[in-house]
Amino acid sequence: MKGARTGTGSVDLDADPSENTQRWARFVATCLIGGLVIGISVLGLHFGAPHQPSLRIWRRKKKPVRVYMDGCFDMMHYGHCNALRQARALGDQLVVGVVSDSEITANKGPPVTPLNERMIMVNAVKWVDEVIPNAPYAITEDFMRKLFDEYKIDYIIHGDDPCVLPDGTDAYALAKKAGRYKQIKRTEGVSSTDIVGRMLLCVRERSISDNQNHSSLQRQFSHGHSQKFDDGGSGTGTRVSHFLPTSRRIVQFSNGKGPGPDARIIYIDGAFDLFHAGHVEILKHARSMGDFLLVGIHTDLTVSANRGAHRPIMNLHERSLSVLACRYVDEVIIGAPWEVSKDMITTFNISLVVHGTVAEVNDFQKRDCNPYAVPINMGIFKILDSPLDITTTTIIRRIVSNHEAYQMVTIRVTPPSEAPSLSSFKRGCEG
Protein backbone atom coordinates (compact mmCIF):
# COMPACT_ATOMS: atom_id res chain seq x y z
CA MET A 1 0.00 0.00 0.00
CA LYS A 2 1.29 3.37 -0.91
CA GLY A 3 2.52 5.37 2.02
CA ALA A 4 2.31 2.39 4.42
CA ARG A 5 4.63 2.59 7.45
CA THR A 6 5.77 -0.16 9.75
CA GLY A 7 6.43 2.12 12.74
CA THR A 8 8.62 4.94 13.97
CA GLY A 9 11.65 5.39 11.80
CA SER A 10 10.25 3.15 9.01
CA VAL A 11 10.99 3.94 5.40
CA ASP A 12 8.31 4.65 2.79
CA LEU A 13 9.45 2.73 -0.27
CA ASP A 14 7.36 4.87 -2.62
CA ALA A 15 8.52 8.21 -1.14
CA ASP A 16 11.18 10.45 -2.54
CA PRO A 17 14.74 9.21 -1.70
CA SER A 18 15.71 12.55 -0.13
CA GLU A 19 12.69 12.36 2.15
CA ASN A 20 13.76 8.87 3.31
CA THR A 21 17.26 10.17 4.03
CA GLN A 22 15.89 12.95 6.22
CA ARG A 23 13.72 10.52 8.14
CA TRP A 24 16.65 8.20 8.74
CA ALA A 25 18.78 11.09 10.02
CA ARG A 26 16.06 12.13 12.45
CA PHE A 27 15.81 8.54 13.75
CA VAL A 28 19.56 8.29 14.35
CA ALA A 29 19.62 11.68 16.09
CA THR A 30 16.78 10.65 18.39
CA CYS A 31 18.65 7.47 19.41
CA LEU A 32 21.84 9.42 20.09
CA ILE A 33 20.09 12.04 22.23
CA GLY A 34 18.21 9.35 24.16
CA GLY A 35 21.40 7.46 24.81
CA LEU A 36 23.13 10.62 26.00
CA VAL A 37 20.33 11.40 28.47
CA ILE A 38 20.38 7.88 29.89
CA GLY A 39 24.16 8.02 30.23
CA ILE A 40 24.08 11.33 32.09
CA SER A 41 21.39 9.93 34.42
CA VAL A 42 23.49 6.89 35.23
CA LEU A 43 26.55 9.05 35.91
CA GLY A 44 24.44 11.28 38.14
CA LEU A 45 23.32 8.28 40.18
CA HIS A 46 26.93 7.28 40.69
CA PHE A 47 28.60 10.64 41.36
CA GLY A 48 25.79 12.78 42.72
CA ALA A 49 23.72 12.71 45.92
CA PRO A 50 22.99 9.00 45.56
CA HIS A 51 26.44 8.22 47.03
CA GLN A 52 24.54 7.26 50.22
CA PRO A 53 24.02 3.57 49.36
CA SER A 54 27.82 3.18 49.17
CA LEU A 55 28.16 5.03 52.49
CA ARG A 56 25.66 2.69 54.12
CA ILE A 57 27.59 -0.32 52.85
CA TRP A 58 30.81 1.19 54.28
CA ARG A 59 29.16 1.74 57.62
CA ARG A 60 27.90 -1.81 57.75
CA LYS A 61 31.40 -3.09 57.15
CA LYS A 62 33.03 -0.74 59.67
CA LYS A 63 34.71 -2.66 62.51
CA PRO A 64 33.21 -1.95 65.95
CA VAL A 65 35.56 -0.28 68.43
CA ARG A 66 36.21 -2.73 71.26
CA VAL A 67 37.54 -1.41 74.57
CA TYR A 68 38.90 -3.33 77.54
CA MET A 69 38.77 -2.48 81.22
CA ASP A 70 39.91 -4.66 84.08
CA GLY A 71 39.56 -4.58 87.85
CA CYS A 72 39.05 -6.53 91.03
CA PHE A 73 35.42 -5.33 91.36
CA ASP A 74 35.49 -6.43 94.98
CA MET A 75 32.46 -5.22 96.97
CA MET A 76 31.17 -3.72 93.74
CA HIS A 77 29.44 -0.35 94.10
CA TYR A 78 27.98 2.38 91.89
CA GLY A 79 31.45 3.89 91.43
CA HIS A 80 32.58 0.72 89.66
CA CYS A 81 29.39 0.80 87.57
CA ASN A 82 29.97 4.41 86.58
CA ALA A 83 33.53 3.56 85.51
CA LEU A 84 32.18 0.79 83.28
CA ARG A 85 29.58 3.18 81.87
CA GLN A 86 32.29 5.70 80.98
CA ALA A 87 34.48 2.99 79.47
CA ARG A 88 31.61 1.73 77.30
CA ALA A 89 31.06 5.27 76.00
CA LEU A 90 34.60 5.22 74.54
CA GLY A 91 33.77 2.35 72.19
CA ASP A 92 31.06 0.16 70.71
CA GLN A 93 31.69 -2.96 72.81
CA LEU A 94 33.08 -3.25 76.34
CA VAL A 95 35.10 -6.30 77.39
CA VAL A 96 35.83 -6.51 81.12
CA GLY A 97 38.60 -8.50 82.76
CA VAL A 98 37.91 -9.69 86.32
CA VAL A 99 41.14 -10.24 88.24
CA SER A 100 41.62 -13.67 89.81
CA ASP A 101 41.46 -14.28 93.56
CA SER A 102 45.13 -15.29 93.66
CA GLU A 103 46.27 -12.15 91.83
CA ILE A 104 44.26 -9.92 94.18
CA THR A 105 45.66 -11.69 97.22
CA ALA A 106 49.23 -11.33 95.93
CA ASN A 107 48.88 -7.62 95.12
CA LYS A 108 46.32 -6.26 97.58
CA GLY A 109 45.30 -8.88 100.13
CA PRO A 110 42.43 -11.39 100.14
CA PRO A 111 39.24 -10.26 98.38
CA VAL A 112 35.96 -9.96 100.27
CA THR A 113 33.96 -11.55 97.47
CA PRO A 114 35.26 -14.61 95.55
CA LEU A 115 35.64 -14.69 91.78
CA ASN A 116 32.32 -16.41 91.05
CA GLU A 117 30.39 -13.68 92.88
CA ARG A 118 32.43 -10.91 91.26
CA MET A 119 31.73 -12.46 87.85
CA ILE A 120 27.98 -12.40 88.60
CA MET A 121 28.22 -8.74 89.54
CA VAL A 122 30.17 -7.63 86.47
CA ASN A 123 28.05 -9.69 84.05
CA ALA A 124 24.96 -7.99 85.48
CA VAL A 125 26.13 -4.45 84.66
CA LYS A 126 24.14 -3.29 81.64
CA TRP A 127 27.09 -1.59 79.91
CA VAL A 128 29.20 -4.76 79.82
CA ASP A 129 29.25 -6.86 76.62
CA GLU A 130 31.79 -9.56 77.48
CA VAL A 131 33.68 -10.72 80.57
CA ILE A 132 37.10 -12.39 80.85
CA PRO A 133 37.58 -14.34 84.11
CA ASN A 134 40.92 -14.67 85.91
CA ALA A 135 42.48 -11.63 84.27
CA PRO A 136 45.99 -10.69 85.44
CA TYR A 137 46.39 -7.77 87.83
CA ALA A 138 48.99 -6.09 85.58
CA ILE A 139 48.88 -5.83 81.77
CA THR A 140 51.78 -8.06 80.69
CA GLU A 141 53.21 -8.18 77.17
CA ASP A 142 51.67 -11.61 76.51
CA PHE A 143 48.24 -10.67 77.85
CA MET A 144 48.21 -7.37 75.95
CA ARG A 145 49.00 -9.23 72.73
CA LYS A 146 46.16 -11.67 73.52
CA LEU A 147 43.78 -8.75 74.00
CA PHE A 148 44.77 -7.21 70.68
CA ASP A 149 44.89 -10.42 68.61
CA GLU A 150 42.31 -12.76 70.17
CA TYR A 151 39.79 -10.34 71.66
CA LYS A 152 40.28 -7.66 68.98
CA ILE A 153 40.67 -4.92 71.59
CA ASP A 154 41.39 -1.42 70.29
CA TYR A 155 41.98 0.42 73.56
CA ILE A 156 42.70 -0.42 77.19
CA ILE A 157 40.84 1.79 79.67
CA HIS A 158 41.56 2.73 83.28
CA GLY A 159 40.58 5.48 85.72
CA ASP A 160 42.65 8.56 86.45
CA ASP A 161 43.67 7.15 89.84
CA PRO A 162 47.15 5.53 89.81
CA CYS A 163 47.45 1.75 89.73
CA VAL A 164 50.86 0.86 91.13
CA LEU A 165 52.28 -2.64 91.45
CA PRO A 166 54.09 -3.81 94.61
CA ASP A 167 57.42 -3.00 92.96
CA GLY A 168 56.30 0.59 92.32
CA THR A 169 55.78 0.29 88.56
CA ASP A 170 52.69 1.36 86.61
CA ALA A 171 50.35 -1.58 85.87
CA TYR A 172 49.38 0.01 82.53
CA ALA A 173 52.83 1.12 81.37
CA LEU A 174 52.88 -1.26 78.38
CA ALA A 175 49.45 -0.19 77.15
CA LYS A 176 50.50 3.46 77.36
CA LYS A 177 53.73 2.74 75.50
CA ALA A 178 51.76 0.98 72.75
CA GLY A 179 49.54 4.04 72.33
CA ARG A 180 46.43 1.99 73.05
CA TYR A 181 45.52 3.47 76.45
CA LYS A 182 42.61 5.75 77.33
CA GLN A 183 41.66 7.24 80.68
CA ILE A 184 38.34 7.96 82.37
CA LYS A 185 37.47 10.10 85.36
CA ARG A 186 37.16 8.45 88.76
CA THR A 187 33.74 8.71 90.43
CA GLU A 188 33.99 11.09 93.38
CA GLY A 189 32.29 10.47 96.71
CA VAL A 190 32.75 6.72 96.99
CA SER A 191 35.56 4.24 97.62
CA SER A 192 35.76 0.69 98.84
CA THR A 193 37.83 1.93 101.80
CA ASP A 194 35.06 4.29 102.87
CA ILE A 195 32.49 1.49 102.57
CA VAL A 196 34.66 -0.82 104.69
CA GLY A 197 34.78 1.90 107.33
CA ARG A 198 31.00 2.18 107.33
CA MET A 199 30.70 -1.59 107.78
CA LEU A 200 33.12 -1.70 110.70
CA LEU A 201 31.35 1.22 112.35
CA CYS A 202 28.14 -0.75 111.90
CA VAL A 203 29.42 -3.44 114.28
CA ARG A 204 31.24 -1.08 116.66
CA GLU A 205 28.77 -1.24 119.53
CA ARG A 206 28.94 -4.98 120.01
CA SER A 207 32.63 -5.39 119.20
CA ILE A 208 34.01 -2.57 121.33
CA SER A 209 33.79 -4.61 124.52
CA ASP A 210 35.32 -7.86 123.29
CA ASN A 211 37.75 -6.91 120.53
CA GLN A 212 40.01 -3.92 121.00
CA ASN A 213 41.52 -4.38 117.52
CA HIS A 214 38.15 -3.76 115.86
CA SER A 215 37.56 -0.71 118.01
CA SER A 216 40.97 0.70 117.17
CA LEU A 217 40.49 0.20 113.46
CA GLN A 218 37.05 1.74 113.57
CA ARG A 219 38.44 4.82 115.27
CA GLN A 220 41.04 5.12 112.50
CA PHE A 221 38.30 5.04 109.91
CA SER A 222 36.15 7.46 111.86
CA HIS A 223 38.95 9.97 112.44
CA GLY A 224 40.82 9.50 109.20
CA HIS A 225 37.79 9.71 106.92
CA SER A 226 35.78 12.30 108.86
CA GLN A 227 32.76 10.06 109.29
CA LYS A 228 29.69 11.94 110.43
CA PHE A 229 26.35 10.89 111.79
CA ASP A 230 22.90 12.19 111.11
CA ASP A 231 21.98 12.26 114.81
CA GLY A 232 24.46 14.90 115.86
CA GLY A 233 27.48 12.64 116.27
CA SER A 234 26.28 10.21 118.91
CA GLY A 235 27.28 7.27 116.78
CA THR A 236 23.85 5.64 116.72
CA GLY A 237 22.59 6.82 113.33
CA THR A 238 23.12 6.08 109.66
CA ARG A 239 26.41 7.44 108.30
CA VAL A 240 26.20 10.49 106.07
CA SER A 241 27.70 9.67 102.68
CA HIS A 242 29.96 12.02 100.77
CA PHE A 243 27.99 11.21 97.63
CA LEU A 244 26.01 14.14 96.18
CA PRO A 245 23.35 12.82 93.81
CA THR A 246 22.30 14.81 90.76
CA SER A 247 19.45 14.33 88.31
CA ARG A 248 22.03 13.98 85.52
CA ARG A 249 23.71 11.01 87.18
CA ILE A 250 20.36 9.29 87.74
CA VAL A 251 19.44 9.87 84.08
CA GLN A 252 22.82 8.41 83.02
CA PHE A 253 22.01 5.20 84.89
CA SER A 254 18.34 5.04 83.90
CA ASN A 255 16.99 3.00 80.99
CA GLY A 256 14.65 5.82 79.98
CA LYS A 257 11.94 3.43 78.79
CA GLY A 258 8.62 2.54 80.36
CA PRO A 259 6.60 -0.67 80.09
CA GLY A 260 4.54 -1.49 77.01
CA PRO A 261 0.73 -1.24 77.13
CA ASP A 262 0.27 -4.97 77.76
CA ALA A 263 3.47 -5.59 79.75
CA ARG A 264 3.40 -7.92 82.74
CA ILE A 265 4.98 -5.76 85.47
CA ILE A 266 6.76 -7.51 88.34
CA TYR A 267 7.44 -5.63 91.59
CA ILE A 268 10.09 -6.47 94.18
CA ASP A 269 11.22 -4.24 97.04
CA GLY A 270 13.97 -4.13 99.63
CA ALA A 271 16.94 -2.22 101.01
CA PHE A 272 19.43 -3.61 98.47
CA ASP A 273 22.22 -2.44 100.76
CA LEU A 274 25.81 -3.26 99.73
CA PHE A 275 24.48 -4.54 96.40
CA HIS A 276 25.83 -8.08 96.02
CA ALA A 277 25.51 -11.28 93.96
CA GLY A 278 22.52 -12.45 96.00
CA HIS A 279 20.64 -9.30 94.98
CA VAL A 280 21.57 -9.78 91.33
CA GLU A 281 20.37 -13.38 91.21
CA ILE A 282 16.98 -12.68 92.85
CA LEU A 283 16.43 -9.71 90.50
CA LYS A 284 17.28 -11.93 87.53
CA HIS A 285 14.78 -14.52 88.81
CA ALA A 286 12.11 -11.85 89.34
CA ARG A 287 12.64 -10.39 85.85
CA SER A 288 12.05 -13.82 84.31
CA MET A 289 8.52 -13.77 85.75
CA GLY A 290 7.34 -10.98 83.46
CA ASP A 291 8.15 -8.30 80.89
CA PHE A 292 9.13 -5.35 83.10
CA LEU A 293 10.83 -5.35 86.52
CA LEU A 294 10.01 -2.49 88.90
CA VAL A 295 12.19 -2.36 92.02
CA GLY A 296 11.23 -0.47 95.18
CA ILE A 297 14.17 0.91 97.22
CA HIS A 298 13.24 1.58 100.84
CA THR A 299 14.21 4.85 102.51
CA ASP A 300 17.09 5.07 104.98
CA LEU A 301 14.66 5.62 107.85
CA THR A 302 12.62 2.56 106.88
CA VAL A 303 15.76 0.40 106.71
CA SER A 304 17.01 1.70 110.07
CA ALA A 305 13.64 1.06 111.70
CA ASN A 306 13.62 -2.57 110.54
CA ARG A 307 17.31 -3.50 110.62
CA GLY A 308 18.93 -1.38 113.29
CA ALA A 309 20.30 2.11 113.80
CA HIS A 310 23.54 1.46 111.87
CA ARG A 311 21.78 0.37 108.71
CA PRO A 312 21.81 1.02 105.85
CA ILE A 313 25.52 1.13 105.04
CA MET A 314 24.83 2.89 101.71
CA ASN A 315 22.31 5.70 101.55
CA LEU A 316 19.14 5.72 99.43
CA HIS A 317 20.62 7.29 96.31
CA GLU A 318 23.76 5.14 96.39
CA ARG A 319 21.60 2.02 96.66
CA SER A 320 19.30 3.24 93.87
CA LEU A 321 22.19 3.75 91.43
CA SER A 322 23.57 0.27 92.12
CA VAL A 323 20.18 -1.28 91.37
CA LEU A 324 19.65 0.91 88.27
CA ALA A 325 22.97 -0.30 86.83
CA CYS A 326 21.70 -3.90 86.87
CA ARG A 327 20.66 -5.13 83.41
CA TYR A 328 17.67 -7.05 84.83
CA VAL A 329 16.06 -3.91 86.28
CA ASP A 330 13.81 -1.70 84.15
CA GLU A 331 12.84 0.97 86.69
CA VAL A 332 13.15 1.81 90.39
CA ILE A 333 11.02 3.65 92.92
CA ILE A 334 13.44 5.76 94.95
CA GLY A 335 12.08 5.75 98.49
CA ALA A 336 9.40 3.08 98.11
CA PRO A 337 6.90 2.66 100.98
CA TRP A 338 7.26 -0.28 103.36
CA GLU A 339 3.71 -1.45 102.67
CA VAL A 340 2.53 -2.28 99.15
CA SER A 341 -0.85 -0.54 98.88
CA LYS A 342 -3.78 -1.00 96.50
CA ASP A 343 -3.22 2.52 95.17
CA MET A 344 0.43 1.72 94.43
CA ILE A 345 -0.50 -1.49 92.59
CA THR A 346 -3.04 0.41 90.49
CA THR A 347 -0.77 3.39 89.80
CA PHE A 348 2.10 1.25 88.50
CA ASN A 349 -0.15 -1.41 86.96
CA ILE A 350 1.67 -4.13 88.91
CA SER A 351 0.80 -7.69 87.86
CA LEU A 352 2.77 -9.60 90.48
CA VAL A 353 4.57 -8.77 93.75
CA VAL A 354 7.47 -11.09 94.63
CA HIS A 355 9.80 -11.62 97.60
CA GLY A 356 12.86 -13.85 97.98
CA THR A 357 13.34 -16.61 100.53
CA VAL A 358 16.71 -15.15 101.62
CA ALA A 359 16.50 -11.68 103.19
CA GLU A 360 17.70 -9.74 106.23
CA VAL A 361 14.10 -9.41 107.45
CA ASN A 362 11.92 -12.37 106.49
CA ASP A 363 9.37 -12.58 109.29
CA PHE A 364 6.86 -10.25 107.63
CA GLN A 365 4.10 -12.89 107.63
CA LYS A 366 4.33 -13.17 111.44
CA ARG A 367 3.90 -9.44 112.01
CA ASP A 368 0.67 -7.70 112.90
CA CYS A 369 1.21 -5.35 109.96
CA ASN A 370 2.21 -7.46 106.95
CA PRO A 371 3.63 -5.15 104.24
CA TYR A 372 2.36 -7.56 101.56
CA ALA A 373 -1.15 -8.03 102.97
CA VAL A 374 -2.84 -6.26 100.04
CA PRO A 375 -1.15 -8.19 97.18
CA ILE A 376 -1.65 -11.42 99.16
CA ASN A 377 -5.39 -10.73 99.43
CA MET A 378 -5.49 -9.85 95.73
CA GLY A 379 -3.82 -13.15 94.85
CA ILE A 380 -0.83 -11.46 93.15
CA PHE A 381 1.94 -12.28 95.65
CA LYS A 382 4.60 -14.96 95.18
CA ILE A 383 7.61 -16.16 97.20
CA LEU A 384 10.64 -16.86 95.00
CA ASP A 385 13.45 -19.24 95.94
CA SER A 386 16.60 -17.14 96.28
CA PRO A 387 19.41 -18.64 94.15
CA LEU A 388 22.18 -17.55 96.59
CA ASP A 389 22.27 -17.51 100.38
CA ILE A 390 23.96 -14.11 100.71
CA THR A 391 22.83 -11.05 102.65
CA THR A 392 24.34 -7.70 103.63
CA THR A 393 25.24 -9.23 106.99
CA THR A 394 27.18 -11.94 105.10
CA ILE A 395 29.36 -9.26 103.48
CA ILE A 396 29.93 -7.45 106.79
CA ARG A 397 31.00 -10.70 108.46
CA ARG A 398 33.49 -11.33 105.66
CA ILE A 399 35.02 -7.88 106.17
CA VAL A 400 35.48 -8.49 109.89
CA SER A 401 36.84 -11.98 109.25
CA ASN A 402 39.28 -10.70 106.60
CA HIS A 403 40.57 -8.09 109.00
CA GLU A 404 41.06 -10.66 111.76
CA ALA A 405 42.89 -13.03 109.39
CA TYR A 406 45.04 -10.22 108.02
CA GLN A 407 46.04 -9.06 111.48
CA MET A 408 46.85 -12.61 112.71
CA VAL A 409 49.13 -13.30 109.73
CA THR A 410 50.86 -9.93 109.98
CA ILE A 411 51.39 -10.11 113.75
CA ARG A 412 53.22 -13.46 113.36
CA VAL A 413 55.73 -12.07 110.86
CA THR A 414 55.97 -8.38 111.75
CA PRO A 415 57.61 -6.65 114.74
CA PRO A 416 55.14 -4.79 117.01
CA SER A 417 56.55 -1.46 115.84
CA GLU A 418 55.42 -2.28 112.30
CA ALA A 419 51.88 -3.45 113.11
CA PRO A 420 49.37 -3.31 110.21
CA SER A 421 47.95 0.13 109.61
CA LEU A 422 44.62 1.15 108.18
CA SER A 423 46.20 2.03 104.83
CA SER A 424 47.69 -1.46 104.48
CA PHE A 425 44.41 -3.16 105.33
CA LYS A 426 42.37 -1.00 102.98
CA ARG A 427 44.44 -2.07 99.96
CA GLY A 428 42.79 -5.46 100.22
CA CYS A 429 39.38 -3.84 99.94
CA GLU A 430 39.82 -1.47 97.00
CA GLY A 431 38.24 -2.69 93.80
TrEMBL record:
Pathway: Lipid metabolism; Phospholipid metabolism; phosphatidylethanolamine biosynthesis; phosphatidylethanolamine from ethanolamine: step 2/3. Residues 213-235 are annotated as: Disordered. GO terms for cellular component: cytoplasm. Residues 213-224 have a biased composition (Polar residues). The keyword Membrane applies. Its EC number is 2.7.7.14. One of its GO terms (biological process) is phosphatidylethanolamine biosynthetic process. This is ethanolamine-phosphate cytidylyltransferase. It comes from Cucumis melo var. makuwa (Oriental melon).
